[in-house]
Design brief:
The protein has about 80 residues and is an all-alpha fold. The protein has one domain. The protein has four helices and no strands.
Length: about 80
């Protein structure tokens, strides 16, 4: 069990699961002030606090999400910079 919890893929999956769940909540409630990213953060914080997972352990998988986000943003930054 500790092997699964120590895996970066577990934390990446946890992040994606929270985001998918927050999108589902947003679509069901149709309230404009409930933003999916806000709900994702609250869900992740709650899961980390309840399960006792430290943030530094979570960031082993979270760094993969951050890396993918940076890769996604790089082409946009390249297009809008002066050359």
């Amino acid at each position: 069990m500790n092997d699964i919890l120590g895996s970066p893929f577990f934390y990446t999956g946890l992040t994606l699961l929270c985001h998918i769940l927050s999108i589902y909540i947003y679509k069901k409630t149709k309230l404009h002030y409930i933003l999916p990213i806000l709900i994702s953060m609250v869900l992740l914080i709650a899961v980390l606090k309840i399960s006792g997972i430290e943030y530094k352990d979570y960031m082993t998988g979270g760094s993969m999400i951050l890396f993918l986000w940076v890769l996604q943003q790089y082409p946009c930054l390249y297009l809008f910079t002066d050359r």
